[in-house]
Design goal:
about 350 residues, Rossmann fold, ATP-binding, OB fold (Dihydrolipoamide Acetyltransferase, E2P), ABC-type ferric iron transporter activity, AAA+_ATPase, transport, 6-stranded mixed β-sheet
Length: about 350
């Protein structure tokens, strides 16, 4: 296992990059703790796989360094980094049994037979594959083959890190939940440093201790699932995390008040110095908005109500902008409810898309 340090790291696929926009991966400095479980989360093309390939050694960065512990591995080939990697699609030896597939990484390093056997059976037990250890991989389903790939990634105890590149893409939805649970259990039991690449927020939030959200080649926030939900550092994080995502509305901020289309919204903190920002916005998650018939709040027109069982999602219109409100299960939505009230303590203020820390009001 290893602490992973990314120092002044950036990468451009084109030669002689001149400006920030030339970089597929913008400059970053991060330390990922030894034994941590991290998820790289973001849309396609945001730089997740580029960053993973730099960590794994498949790609040498244009600038900066990668350290495993205190060792600079920036220019070391993959085989010298002592990592395991699980790819998007199963990588197995069809003519081998499940047992031999799981044992292969250990046997390849000359591990004694009794240690190989103990470790293979431990991993098979965690993956629920004990009863198929003697079967050839060729006849197994894609789900089972991907479980073998996951097991081969986990079977070595001495790896610096285990890297997962969207490993559950080919897995059916129910099995995805089961495998995420098993990965969490494996991490708790063996304590490897794990980095998991995905564009699925559910996978990221249920797997990782910390989620690294990427957007346009940049890490816009690294934090716990609670951090990302309660205090999105960037409006993209608010939009990307949550279903539906955070409501973001342009506003004018004056001290402890926000003004939107002439309506005043109280804030829990005092803000100043926003005059130079190109854009100023407030963000508030649908969970912290309340639809009401009181005269205060923003005037809205309810377009539709989506009943998803445990809650209702109210889709409303405010001067041509969609505003989403989450109402509890069983809540009655009437025609008289045409105002939205915000919880002041849950409103975030953003200048040029980045969160602003106000002062106690």
């Amino acid at each position: 296992m290893a602490k992973i340090t990314l120092s002044n790291l950036a990468h451009a696929y084109r030669p002689n990059p001149q400006s920030r926009s030339d970089f597929a991966l913008k400059q970053m400095d991060h330390v990922w703790d030894d034994g941590g479980a991290y998820a790289l989360l973001g849309p396609s093309g945001c730089g997740k796989t580029t960053l993973l390939n730099i960590i794994s050694g498949l790609l040498i960065p244009s600038q900066g360094k990668v350290l495993f512990g205190e060792v600079d591995v920036t220019r070391l080939p993959t085989e010298q980094r002592n990592i395991a990697q699980v790819f998007q699609f199963p990588v197995v030896y069809d003519t081998m049994t499940v047992y031999d597939n799981l044992a292969f990484p250990l046997r390849n390093r000359g591990t004694e037979a009794h240690l190989v056997d103990a470790r293979v059976r431990d991993i098979a037990r965690m993956l629920g594959m004990t009863d198929v250890l003697g079967k050839k991989a060729q006849g197994l389903t894609a789900d089972a083959k991907q479980k073998i790939s996951l097991g081969r990634g986990m079977v070595r105890e001495d790896v610096s890190a285990i890297l997962f590149d969207e490993p559950l893409t080919v897995i059916d939805p129910h099995m995805k939940w089961e495998l995420r649970t098993q990965l969490k259990a494996l991490h708790r039991e063996f304590g490897h440093t794990m980095i998991y690449v995905t564009h699925d927020q559910t996978e990221a939030l249920t797997f990782a201790d910390k989620v690294v959200v990427m957007y346009d080649g940049e890490v816009v926030q690294m934090g716990t699932p609670a951090d990302l939900f309660e205090r999105p550092a960037h409006t993209f994080v608010g939009y990307f995390i949550g279903s539906p995502g955070m409501n973001v509305l342009p506003a004018k901020i004056d001290g402890a008040s926000a003004y939107i289309e002439g309506c005043q919204i109280p804030l829990s903190r005092h803000y100043s110095g926003l005059e130079t920002a190109k854009t100023v916005e407030i963000g508030c998650r649908p969970e912290f908005l309340t639809l009401t018939d009181r005269p205060d709040g923003l005037p809205v027109q309810v377009r539709r109500v989506e009943d998803v069982g445990r809650l209702k999602i109210v889709r409303a219109d405010f001067f041509g902008r969609e505003v989403n409100i989450i109402a509890p299960e069983g809540a009655s939505i009437s025609d008289r409810q045409n105002r939205v009230v915000f919880d002041p303590a849950r409103i975030n203020v953003y200048a040029d898309s980045w969160i602003v820390e106000g002062k106690a009001a």
